[in-house]
Amino acid sequence: METSDLSRHQMIKGLFAPHTENVAEAAIHRWEQMAAHIILIVGEDGFNSLYARSVHLTQSTFPWLAAGTLSPHTGQRFAELKASLEGQKPAQASEANNLLLLTFTGILATLIGEPLTNRILSSAWGKDASHGTSKETENE
Amino acid sequence: MSKKVTIRSLPSGVPGLDNLLGGGLPEFSFNLIAGTPGSGKTTLAHQIMFSLAKPDYRALFFTVLGEPALKMLRYQQQFQFFDQDKVNNSIRFVNLSAELLEGDFDRVLTRIAAEVQAYAPSLVFVDSFRSVVHSANRGGQSVSDLQRFVQQLGLQMTSWQATTFLIGEYLTPEQESSPIFTVADGILWLAQNVHRNSMVRKMQVVKMRGQAQAPGLHTFRISDAGIQVFPRAIVQPGAATGSETSTGDARVPIGVPGLDEMLGGGLPAGYSLLLVGPSGSGKTILATEFLAEGARRGEPGVIAAFEKSPSQLLNTKLSELVSAGKVGVINTRSLDLSIDETLHDLIEMIKRMRAKRVVIDSLSGFELALAPEFSEDFRGSLYRMVAELTGMGMTILMTSELEDRYTDLRFSPFGSAFLADAIIVQRYVEIAGQFKRAMSVVKVRGSQHSKDIRLFDITDAGIILGETMSGYAGILSGRPTLGPN
Lengths: 140, 485
Known about the structure:
Number of helices of chain A: 6
Shape of chain B: elongated
Strand content of chain B: 25-35%
Largest sheet of chain B: 9 strands, mixed
Largest sheet of chain A: none
Helix content of chain B: 25-40%
Radius of gyration of chain A: 14 Å
Distance between the termini of chain B: 86 Å
Number of strands of chain A: 0
Number of domains of chain B: 2
Structural class of chain B: alpha/beta
Number of strands of chain B: 24
Order of helices and strands of chain A: HHHHHH
Radius of gyration of chain B: 29 Å
CATH class of the largest domain in chain B: Alpha Beta
Number of helices of chain B: 15
Strand content of chain A: under 5%
CATH topology of the largest domain in chain B: Rossmann fold
Strand order of the largest sheet of chain B: 5-4-6-7-3-8-9-10-11
Oligomer: heterodimer
Structural class of chain A: mainly alpha
Shape of chain A: globular
């Protein structure tokens, strides 16, 4: 369990570490990729309720995060999150986004297990995410 | 020159189900898995899917409202058959709730078609189909629209060369004059029957085009490993109780000196023997002798022991036989068994041990261990079970507890004496202020046998037959008297 837990953290860390500029844009891009895969499996409502819960939990650390309501229009889904992140300094925005992603994937993992969550995440983020973390997932 | 099309049969991956289906799942068939809530429909679908799906034989699982997909994944993961490595490689889950909210079948159909086209699956599942029907009512679409939709779907999936399963909640098969039932090639019906606080799961293959499915209701069990079906024993043509299947003149010795002579040289092979007697009369001891004699002759045995828990095994002699691997014991999970489940376990064990002798100790305990629902049809089920076992060439010894009656003569509380080929009765008699045991061979179908009533003793060495009570009269009254000689 620990190794797979590590790989989810590493995946998220690896995705955003090099980007210090355009944090919001990069973050939303990843959220869109992930949403597409998860909505396919659990449906829009399923995704929205997970997202709302994650925002609620993350708000205790970053109260400036926009409320967890998502726009039903694909492409505009994370407009509020984007606006919130853009209003912050890159370092702060990046930290908040990482925590939000970890919280979201954490909730998903408690529901359907780490291995299945990692599987979904790596198919959503493709090579970018599996780079450097593939060893851990293979060792499960 | 005409060459008929051969329909490939897919192994379902559910133990026992292929027997029910008459071979397996016909490829490209359009099937319905229906049943009451909680009857195991989604589990059955998942088990079939995980068993069949491979990278070059992919499966597409559509979820529609009903059970939230997250929960389904969460709970189905608990089963051993759920192979995470297959998810996304061979199995893809797709949620259709957005399309369905509009209540428009055409959108659902278009989406399904698009996904099927993109993924090219060999297996397609739609869970739960009932939601589609409900939304039809809500969306104001008529039944004919639904019928068209189902027909379209059936047609499309067959053209796409996909074996399809629709999963739906229905209360009774009769209740629905649903068009889905007409269109489907196969219908699997799952139910949970509750009878006096006990619940029994049952499965029925209502319809399976082009195959001879096993008719009737069959019990199944859901465990960590998933679903296991116990096909109901059906008396096969040619497999009847008694002498037809008995292998000629071969006799199976019981191993009690004197008793084999009384039976006319041992019990004819392939016979079922009913051993009747009151509590403590020595039925289990005699059954042990029967198994021990088999072990001596290299004929392994199997015992279904309902009177004792497997941990505190019967008697030392029997425990020794069991630990030496010469006798197999059927684990009797109590109080919600079905006869078919017991029979299934027995047959597995018989095949594994290449057994020749079977003991059921006792019918009274067996009846008690069954779910109440089956107790009502105990006689009928027992008949099928005995026919099945003797059909396999087994020689069976069944014990039955029966209180001594001194006013009438009975052989079985179940009226099951007719299905035994041979009957031995044990009873207590009072002689000179002592309780003595007496034994007699009442019936051996198609064979000469002794008509004597003989006293016997149970010693450490086993059963010792004593003198013939030829001088006595009124033995069956329990108080025999020495007749005037």
